[in-house]
Amino acid sequence: MLYESTVPAYANGLRALSAQLDKALAWGKDNGVGELQLLAARIAPDMFPLAAQVRFSCLQALQSPTRLGAAGAPAFEEDAADFAGLQQQIADSLGWLETVDRAALDADPDRAVGFTLPNGMAFDMTAATYVRDWAQPQFYFHLVAAYAVLRHMGVPLGKADYVGYMMQYLRPGTAPAS
């Protein structure tokens, strides 16, 4: 249950983010918006820029399986300096997610999970509650923030870019005509 709620969802989200970054880079080249300009873009002055949102998306995808018993996750101490670096962070995260042992994550949904934020706030909950109330919201917050930064900059992304992985489930003959 915990594995299914985390690892596949994170992989889907990170693959979608990778495709959004590819689209953004191509759009930027066609529209005179430089890579560094996109990396530094943010939605609001007190929010992190795109490069940090991508790094945080990756870190959130790694952190929850680690807190649930997985080991060996890559560490990303700094924001990537270019789009190749963003894509490498995503690729490294996806590669590690493929190694996560389902049994380790699913072993005991009622086991205690505790963590402390850099500001000193500490939380204690069950593994299942952690996934539902912290891990998933944190991952999607940063994933959506990265998407929103790109939209804010003018990159022509839509919902299909955010949930493109859903096309594998599309019932034949139900797609709208172009």
From TrEMBL:
Bilayer-crossing regions: none
SUPFAM superfamilies, alphabetized: DinB/YfiT-like putative metalloenzymes (SSF109854)
Entries under Pfam families matching the protein: DUF1993 (PF09351)
InterPro entries referenced in this protein's UniProt entry, alphabetically: DinB/YfiT-like, DUF1993
The protein's name: DUF1993 domain-containing protein
